Amino acid sequence: MKAILLGVCSSFFFAFTFVLNRSMELAGGSWLWSSSLRYFFMLPFLILFVIGTKKWSPLMKEMKKHPAQWLLWGTVGFGLFYAPICFAGAFGPGWLIAATWQMTILSGSLLAPLFFKEIQTANGPLKVRGQIPLKGLSMSMIILLGVAVMQYEHASHLSLKPVLLTIIPVLIASFAYPLGNRKMMALCDGRLDVFQRVLGMTLGSLPLWIIFAIFALSTTGLPTKTQTIQSFWVAICSGLIATLLFFQATNMVQHNMAQLAAVEATQSIQVLFVLLGEILFLGAALPTSLSLFGMALVMIGMVLHSYISRSDKVTQTVKPDATKQFS
After folding, report:
1. Is 117 helix (H, G, I), strand (E, B) or coil?
2. I want to staple 205 with a disulfide (CB 3.0 to 4.6 A). Which of 78, 222, 278, 314 is the partner?
3. Quick one: signal sequence residues (predicted)?
4. Phi, psi (5° rounding) for residue 157?
5. How many CB atoms lie within 10 A of CB 224?
6. What Rg do the C-alpha atoms of the chain give, in angstroms?
């Protein structure tokens, strides 16, 4: 349950991304600056923290072992996650982006077969391909149903083009984020903590952000003062606090795919936080009774997902003892 709570807290801080990105877009800011500035602002804070805790050398040692992997999965996990999110902000409101982002619940579960976990057998350790947690996946469908109900009235008023230009990039991001996160966890294998891993992935994605910044400078000029300030707060709230909380939560359950899917499912709460943020700061309309019903479905799905996940954990704990009894 501690990992679930950390996931919910991270979803609150992640919500700042959607609200502030939409605010920057409405003010005329370039999505290229919105995406790259976040990681430029994150970098010095992460470097100072890692150096201050004397963990810089272990990180550099790990990155030198597999530089291409850090570059690839840093770009996938951070670059192909945040750039599409910012691009989508140019074509749709924050609530639609946040709602579509909940596809990461399904995406994270569907990625399970791409990874292996080690189990102990009578003949020694054996690597087994991960299986899609079908019970948790069914609970995820309840969450997605709630999101669909909550956003139905809003989406019905939009034309096809902005909907597609919002949905497709966010779908790409929903697979890229858990994929990059899990690949780096597997590569590090517990040798690095959350702060080191986030810094390593930020450094790995840095070439992409530099290219974006150069292109933005040549096409739109320097970012405005408002966009710079808001990007700074996105970096602090979402890039640092939310990311570190989420990575810490996934670290705690990285060897249990059902639990990992449950932690990733907590990100559905972002929809509630984003709606509230848009109402308070962007003047969005109050949710209707149908939207409130959708919110209730999301909460019910979250509770059921957590319950199923805890049940799976108990089963996985008992099974090894039973195997020893009959061996």
Report:
1. strand
2. 78
3. none
4. -95, 0
5. 16
6. 20
Query: What tokens does 214 get?
Result: 């150069």
pTM higher than 0.85 for the full model? Answer: no
CA 12 to chain centroid: 12
Q: Is the pLDDT of residue 198 over 60?
A: yes
The answer to whether residue 322 sits within a structural domain is: no
User: Per the structure, how many domains does the chain have?
Assistant: 1
Q: What is the DSSP string of 5-28?
A: HHHHHHHHHHHHHHHHHHHHHHTT
SS3 159: coil
Assess if residue 100 is contained within a domain. Answer: yes
**Which range marks the domain in which residue 209 is found?**
2-316
- Does residue 122 fall inside a structural domain? yes
Q: Torsion angle of alpha carbons 180, 76, 245, 27, nearest 10°? A: -160
Q: So what's the pLDDT on residue 318?
A: 42
Q: Would you tell me the crossing angle of helices 194-219 and 67-74 to the nearest 10 degrees?
A: 60
Q: Return all residues near 267 (Cβ < 8 A) that are at least 6 apart.
A: 7, 10, 11, 14, 101, 102, 104, 105, 246
| Mean pLDDT of the chain, nearest integer | 82
| 292 found inside a domain | yes
CA dihedral 52, 205, 101, 176 (to 10 degrees): -120
